[in-house]
Design brief:
This protein is an alpha/beta fold and 117 residues long. It has one domain. Helices cover 34% and strands 20% of the residues. The chain has a 5-stranded parallel β-sheet. The two termini are 12 Å apart.
Length: 117
């Protein structure tokens, strides 16, 4: 079982990104943990069934790297993966930097949309 943390803005389809919610749902159905590490309010306010798929939302009062470190410290998984943007290349958030700082594997949103897992 892997743990996937998804950025929202310019990552998920409901916020201008290429990652289809159906692909996120498939990860969950395949037994992985999926959650949000970004503008989670967009998801909770626009998708009434969000809680059936996402196991966590954040970050709230901490940085993305801190949030990711907390997850990997307290939620056991085989691998930790952040899906999101490369600052200045594919979005406005430094998700690649957050993943690197937390020791997580990073997948750019466009690569995830093309099938990289």
């Amino acid at each position: 079982m892997k743990l996937y943390a998804f950025d929202v803005d310019e990552t998920l389809e409901l916020s201008g990104g290429p990652v289809r919610l159906a692909d996120v749902v498939r990860l969950r159905k395949d037994g992985h943990i999926v959650g949000l590490c970004g503008n989670w309010a967009v998801v909770t306010q626009s998708w009434p069934e969000w809680f059936e798929i996402f196991s966590f939302v954040g970050p709230m009062l901490m940085t993305k790297p801190e949030f990711l470190k907390q997850l990997s410290t307290y939620v056991p998984a085989e691998e930790y993966v952040m899906v999101g943007n490369i600052l200045g290349v594919s979005g406005q958030s430094d998700d690649q930097g957050a993943a690197n700082a937390a020791g997580w594997r990073f997948i750019q949103e466009s690569d995830f949309a093309r099938g990289t897992r």
